[in-house]
C-alpha cells in the first residue's frame, strides 16, 4: 500500500445546519479561528478547507485529504478540537454529537479536472472517410 504522503488527495464535502439566528455569530467566530485549531487541522490532513454558510443556515464544508478516516481520527485525538467542538455545538441544529462527528458527507458527482484529464488520455477513434 502507498504511504499516506503519496496517496492522492481526495475531495470531501459535508453539510450541517447552523441555527439561522446564529449565522452572523457563526461567521464571526470562523473569521478568527484559534491558531492552535488551525495548526491541528493542517497537521491532521485537512487541506484547502473551506466553510460556506448561507443566510438560511445551510452550512457546506469542503476540504481535501489523503485519508478521511485518519484526518477525522487525528482531530478527535486533539484537546483543542474537543474544546472547539464544545464551543460550536450551540450553533448547530439537529445534531446531538459534535459537528465533526455529525456532518453529512455529500458524494462527489462531477470533477471537471478529473474528466478533462481522462478525456485527454483516452484514445479517440479515427474519423471515417
Automatic annotation (TrEMBL):
It holds the Pfam family rhaM. GO terms for biological process: rhamnose catabolic process. SUPFAM superfamilies: Dimeric alpha+beta barrel. Gene3D superfamilies: 3.30.70.100. GO terms for molecular function: racemase and epimerase activity, acting on carbohydrates and derivatives. This is L-rhamnose mutarotase. It comes from Agrococcus pavilionensis RW1.
Amino acid at each position: 500500500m502507498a504511504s499516506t504522503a503519496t496517496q492522492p488527495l481526495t475531495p470531501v464535502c459535508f453539510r450541517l445546519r447552523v441555527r439561522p439566528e446564529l449565522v452572523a455569530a457563526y461567521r464571526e467566530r470562523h473569521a478568527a479561528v484559534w491558531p492552535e485549531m488551525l495548526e491541528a487541522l493542517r497537521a491532521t490532513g485537512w487541506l484547502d478547507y473551506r466553510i460556506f454558510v448561507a443566510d438560511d443556515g445551510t452550512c457546506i464544508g469542503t476540504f481535501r485529504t489523503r485519508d478521511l478516516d485518519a484526518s477525522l481520527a487525528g482531530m478527535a485525538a486533539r484537546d483543542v478540537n474537543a474544546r472547539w467542538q464544545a464551543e460550536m455545538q450551540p450553533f448547530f441544529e439537529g445534531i446531538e454529537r459534535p459537528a465533526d462527528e455529525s456532518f453529512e458527507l455529500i458524494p462527489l458527482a462531477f470533477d471537471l479536472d478529473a474528466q478533462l484529464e481522462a478525456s485527454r488520455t483516452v484514445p479517440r477513434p479515427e474519423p471515417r472517410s
